[in-house]
């Protein structure tokens, strides 16, 4: 499964669904070598270095020309180094 960097602060509601926008520099750098292989509805992993990752399905914003990732419930994985001391998230 392809892995694409994302910024958790860059999200939006697109076509009535919560999505992460994949238009920050790190996302664009992750997408560049695989751009011709991506398609709407494809499952990919998005990640924030040292913090978390999750499975998503891709959507494409045709109006503005960038990819979005719709999170798949129950697939979040938090990296231990990204959690504060005493946190019980996993």
Provide structural commentary.
The chain is mainly beta and about 90 residues long. The chain has one domain: Ribosomal Protein L25, Chain P (Beta Barrel), CATH 2.40.240. It has one helix and seven strands; from the N terminus they run βββαββββ. It has one helix spanning about 25-30, and strands at about 5, 10-15, 15-20, 45-50, 50-60, 65-70, 75-80. Strands 1, 2, 3, 4, 5, 6 and 7 form a seven-stranded mixed β-sheet that branches. The radius of gyration is 13 Å and the shape is globular. The chain starts with a strand and ends in a 12-residue tail after the last strand. The mean pLDDT is about 95.
Q: How large a portion of the residues is in β-strands, by DSSP E?
A: 35-45%
Cα shape: globular
Count of DSSP H/I helices: 1
| N- to C-terminal distance | 21 Å
CATH class: Mainly Beta
Stretches where pLDDT falls below 50 for ≥5 residues? none
**Helix and strand composition category:** mainly beta
Percent range of helical residues: under 10%
Number of domains: 1
Order of helices and strands: EEEHEEEE
Say how many strands there are. 7
What are the defining features of this structure?
90 residues; mainly beta; Ribosomal Protein L25, Chain P; 7-stranded mixed sheet; 40% strand; globular
Topology readout:
Blueprint: E1 3-5, E2 11-14, E3 17-21, H1 25-31, E4 43-48, E5 52-61, E6 66-71, E7 77-78
Parallel strand pairs: 1-4
Antiparallel strand pairs: 2-3, 3-6, 4-5, 5-6, 5-7
């Amino acid at each position: 499964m392809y892995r694409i960097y994302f910024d958790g602060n860059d999200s939006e509601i697109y076509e009535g669904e919560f999505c992460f926008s994949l238009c920050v520099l790190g996302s664009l750098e992750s997408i560049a070598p695989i751009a011709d292989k991506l398609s709407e509805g494809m499952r990919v992993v998005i990640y924030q270095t040292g913090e978390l990752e999750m499975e998503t399905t891709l959507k494409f914003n045709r109006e503005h020309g960038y990819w979005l990732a719709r999170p798949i419930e129950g697939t979040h994985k938090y990296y231990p180094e990204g959690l504060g001391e005493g946190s019980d998230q996993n």
